[in-house]
Amino acid sequence: MNRKAFFAISLLVILAAILTACAPAANKVTVATDATFPPFEYVDENKNIVGFDIDLMNEIAKEAGFEIEWVNVPFDSLLAGMATCQYDAAAAAISILPERQAQMLFSDPYLDAGLVVVVQDGNTTVKSKDDLVGKTVAAQLGTTGEIEAQKIANVNYKPYDSYDLAFLDLMNGQIDAVIADNPVALGFVAANPGKLKTAGPVFNSEQYGIAICNTKSDLQTKINAALKSLVDSGVVSQLAAKDLTLQ
Fold this sequence. Notes:
Blueprint: H1 3-22, E1 28-33, E2 36-37, E3 41-43, E4 49-50, H2 52-64, E5 67-72, H3 75-83, E6 89-95, H4 98-101, E7 105-106, E8 111-120, E9 136-140, H5 144-149, E10 156-160, H6 163-171, E11 177-181, H7 182-191, E12 196-212, H8 217-232, H9 235-243
Parallel strand pairs: 1-5, 1-6, 9-10, 9-11
Antiparallel strand pairs: 2-3, 3-4, 6-12, 7-12, 8-11, 8-12
């Protein structure tokens, strides 16, 4: 082999190695979440994103054979990103709604949930959603809680980027009530004993699903197959018992 041929082959080998290193992993899936929804997704004391949805999605990835690259973004940005396929999927206690189904695919439902009103523990005037007329009511931007809050007559609706800020203002007396998903509400109530309580029954029953980019039906199929396997084997029930404060 002459010197020119040797260098040419060497160059091709180096280029091939570089291209292989730069190529994205075929089995890597970008999953968005909004880590402000305990007990579904939140940041723990070690700065790790944890919670039921995180554990569930990690188990689905393991079952389906792909890797996850997590992206933590505000919920309204998450929905906008999913509508434009900025992310492959999203796991963030996302209610399956017709208007969302028009923009993105969804997995099979993995949890039934609804909304509930949360007030200060000492509040004796608000006993249900019907008592919120004319009150200052908060919810997180882009959520079904926001949709329901805006339906209340003469409401002074106050939107928040995250529920932790809304509940902080509620405890400080800046607002009268927060409308949130029941499991999320129960997580904040449990974390603040003597400060918060739910008022009235759960309403507006809805189901959570994993959102998926609307061009990735193959990913939807993989996620649904893995989810069914995890439900049938009891893994989802075990995760719920470990992570959720549904009481």
